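ok so for the tutorial part 2 we go from a plain amino acid sequence to predicted structure tokens. step 1 is just haveing the sequence, like this:
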Amino acid sequence: MITDETIVALSTPPGSGAIGVIRLSGKDAISITNSVFSGKDLLAQPSHTLHFGLIKDGDIVIDEVVVSLFVGPRSYTKENVVEISCHGSNYIIQQIISLLIKKGASAAKPGEFTLRAFLNGAMDLSQAEAVADLISSDSQAAHSVAMNQLRGGFSTELNVLREQLIHFASMIELELDFSEEDVEFANRDQLQDLINKITMVLNKLIRSFELGNVIKEGINTVIAGRPNAGKSTLLNALLNEDRAIVSEIAGTTRDTIEEVLNINGINFRMIDTAGIREATDTIEAIGVEKTMQKISHAAVLVYLFDVVNMTAREIHEDINSLYRPGFTFIAVANKMDLTYNDRIKELDLPLDIAFVSISAKENKGIEELKELLYDTVVGDKLSESHTMVTNIRHVEALRKTQESLHSVSEGLINPVTSDFLATDIKQALYYLGEITGKVTTDDLLENIFSKFCIGK
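step 2 — the prediction. this is what the tokens look like for a chain of 456 residues:
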């Protein structure tokens, strides 16, 4: 899949700016750039150096630039890499790229620079995917998880286990060569211990996906409740700005309003919804229907109720209708500025749901609600494990590895011949290899790297 072509692309975001960075990679990257560069002879310069000069098309000066040289294998792709920093005019950038293509370069495809880094052994596949996660990270937690994966935290752990499993696979393969002599080179008890150990690690990684995925994508958090409970006021208080219209008229919110709230580095995608009640007109009915749709897809539901005007029966009815297994439910008593805590005791709320009392209007209890949101969803899970799975492709491969190892374990409990054990172990090794790129196909690589931005 590696070609001799030298590729070129704009690596900075398109559009006018102070500078644009044009990147080339390939064996001819330096010579192609040198053919249009007026300044020092780039072919005679050492790696990791900067050079000021002109980009010229014949006698026509296109721009003054700074050229950065990275001589392979000491580069991102392990090939010769050149980065041209020019003025950020769209016209200038396109003129330079067109000139470089005329001189022999080819336009890069999405993710082709990182694909070459993977194919040339600069990083494994899970690290390459972490590059895309790092670029798209929009919170401290997402950045930390992507950086850990980029530095090999995930793949290092898997490779250690894979090497141990390869050892047993080779021992069992050896048994097949001596099948007529009925000898065992692979200690079955040690193999079972290794399978138990790997299974524990796989379970931990698979469980980490639930948190890892929401860190990567953000946590869908729906604020729901009856009309005039104060949902829009709460959203404004959480965001510390007037984002939603606030009115004493019930049913003001007809459509959902979505904003991102960052709490301790975690992005909560806050969704203010229409009040839940029998709609009085068609538009409100659509709003209520959208509310129920948002609730069904929520990771966290913040049920806000008017602690003054609602009866305990009404609150219990709402909780019973809204609560469902599989998501975090937080009950929030609003308008505590108008009542006393004794009122909460009268409501007899279920003990198995998180609860906090606030006054959205007076901005009281808002920080406590933020802490409860974070603790309920994240808590100390980030400190429990530095290795976290955020990619659905990885978690699917881990589950398939688990299934194959279960078959190996079954074959040890109910003894089968070495060839069956070898087949199941090879299958487990295959799925582990898919994660880091020990096993790849062109279709898999195209699917992964086509999602990258051009220039990376």
